[in-house]
Amino acid sequence: MKPCKNRSTLLPDLACYAKVAAMNIPQAGVENLVVKQPSTKRPWLLPGERWYRRIVTMLVALILLTALLISFWQSRSEGDRVLVAHTENLARLIVSQAEHEARIWFLEDNHEGLSSLAAHLQAQEEILEVSIQDELGRPVVRVGHNLPIHEYLLSLPDDMWAVPMVVPVLEHGGPGAQLLGFVRITFDYDRITAQSRPYHRASWQNQLLMLVLAFLSGALIAFAMLRRRRAIPVHIEPPEAS
């Protein structure tokens, strides 16, 4: 076999030598010779046409994102309901204690005791006004204003969360107890919830952060799964002998 020479440089022609070497490789060896090369295409794990896969992927992502938003909104609404329920329980506890003390002063017919009780309650910043009435609903002691309750509530700012609570004062807790009077306390719910709102806001921010992290994690996982490339085997055909 004549050596391969380059006519211009008189150097061995590498392509010619490769061709000659390929002629000496057995057919079985040539068929098993596989070179791994990256594909110029972008293969996907999901079967089907590219646009169809993209539409399905976007729909699934939108459904999951909507589910996360709904779950977050429900959790926030549940937190608001728990906060309101806690505020109402605290207000009812204060009214119950006031009713218990007012019963003592009613039984003793102690007007000064009722006045002291009303003044002590109204001194709390969470309480707007206190009214103690007899069994016919006539005011006995009123602290905070001198207006009827409906006019007083209308005189308050619109953004104030004022809630009046009325509890009857009975002679005793058993059946057939005589009605002694009433105790009405108007609460400012905004001030009652002022101490709990920072913790509620911090919990809401943590839930929002978890929602964002969950969305980013899902997006990264989907990107890693759907954009993973696979090596495509490329077979080298043996050159024909000349």
TrEMBL record:
It comes from the Bacteria. It is found in: Cell membrane. The chain crosses the membrane at residues 51-73, 208-226. Keywords: Cell membrane, Membrane, Transmembrane, Transmembrane helix. Pfam families: SMP_2. InterPro entries: Uncharacterised_Smp. Its main location: membrane. Belongs to the Smp family. This is Uncharacterized protein. It comes from Aliidiomarina sanyensis.
